[in-house]
Amino acid sequence: MGKLTIGCFSSLVGSLSLDFAVKLSEAAVKKGHDVDLWVSSNATMLSKKGQKPFKDYSHLAKTLTELFASGKFKAVACEACAEARGYHKDDTMEGWGRRSMDWYLASAFSADRVLLIGGD
Amino acid sequence: MAITKLAFIVRSLPYKTEASRLALTHAIASQTVEIYLEDGDNVEPVLCYIGDGVLNCLKNQQAGKHYGITSLEQHAKNSLLLDLKVMICKEDVDKFGLKEDQLVMDAEDIGGETNAQLVPYSEIQKVMEEVDHLQFF
Amino acid sequence: MKLGVLLSDHKTDSDVLGRLTAEKLGIILVGNGTYLATIKENGKASPILDKTSNLYVLVEDLESRGLSAANVDSRVKPVTYSDVVDLIFNDYEKIIWL
Fold first, then answer.
1. Cβ–Cβ below 8 Å for B136 and C97
2. Would you list the domain boundaries of chain A?
3. Contacts of residue C16 in chain B, CB cutoff 8 Å?
4. pLDDT in the model for residue A120
5. Which residues of C touch chain A, with CB atoms under 8 Å apart?
6. Do A100 and B133 touch (CB under 8 A)?
7. Mind listing the pLDDT tens digit for each residue in B39-91?
């Protein structure tokens, strides 16, 4: 089994690229791999608590809760990116960490594979 | 003791999306990654500009004046100040009709001693093959 | 190097993809990249499909767009998320997203 580090910048609502990151994480964890998910830029909104499901928008909170429960999944949001968007530590969903960008690089250091999903 | 080589390949134009800015800020974050690692372990970033991405290197960017944000030019200088290896694709610079003196090739004005390298794409391809992980921004 | 490219756009950045070379190159079509596996513009398949013989398309993204695995170009293999994980860990050393 290996470790996959995923970095993602894409918006929570809009592109489905962040959905891809979460679904890929789910598939990797199901196969016994470890996954670190780093979100920065607009993707930090994925870590905000209190997301309500609407049919027109992605709702990934339930999958994330299941991933955290697996013990094989870590997720960390860029603190500066979140604060710049007016979203503070108290608003963070359970399970998530908030760190600076060096955390992502440290995760990449020990990863077998790194996937950076850029763009909006 | 191990070194993991990470390539940050910038292919996006600046400002409309955050992608190229994030490439630079993440690459620069390598300066503090040791706090998470064992003694002797580290990451070694290399920053390459290809395609439209070379336009991030233009001098005289005035995003600070007009939008109050750090320009990509300033981040490019910061990366050189911190001695990151920086490569700019010559074919793409030529394609846009640019000359070397129009690009951020050094950070002497802020005390930097490292220069960017204007290289053929084949040199950047070699970097892609040598590094442990590739990231396109 | 063995390079896997997750291609998520229909209109590709040919400056970037066209120049990529690898000892083994795989292209996994995801998101809007899935159109490249099925839609023929002016009757012609995408030239991306000539770039390598290791071509894959993510079925979930294909079906989400009203496309069907039955209509996929014969050179492209339909795959699931689980298959993509195996490709990432077993077939390619480096993975990029375009």
1. yes
2. 1-34+60-73
3. 11, 50-51, 136
4. 65
5. 6, 8, 30-31, 60-61, 80-82, 84-86, 88-89, 94-97
6. no
7. 999 999 999 999 999 999 999 999 999 999 999 999 999 999 999 999 999 99
In CATH, the number for domain C2-13+20-97 is 3.40.1260.10
| Residue C70 to residues B110, C42, C60, C62, C76, Cα–Cα distance (Å) | 60, 20, 13, 11, 11
Query: Which residues in chain C are contacts of A17 at CB distance < 8 A?
Result: 8, 31
* Chain A: residue whose CA lies nearest to C80: A27
Which tens digits make up the pLDDT trace of B98-137?
A: 999 999 999 999 999 999 999 999 999 999 999 999 999 9
pTM of the model: 0.96
Q: Whose structure tokens read 């990509």?
A: B72
CA distance C18 to chain B (A): 11
The gap from C-alpha B57 to its chain's centroid, in whole angstroms, comes to: 9
Q: What is the pLDDT of residue B74?
A: 98
Tokens 């609407």 correspond to A54
* CA atoms of B28 and A8, how far apart (whole Å): 18
Question: Nearest C-alpha of chain A: how many angstroms from B23?
Answer: 9
Question: What is the domain count for chain B?
Answer: 1
Domain that holds residue B36: 3-136
DSSP single-letter state for residue B90? H
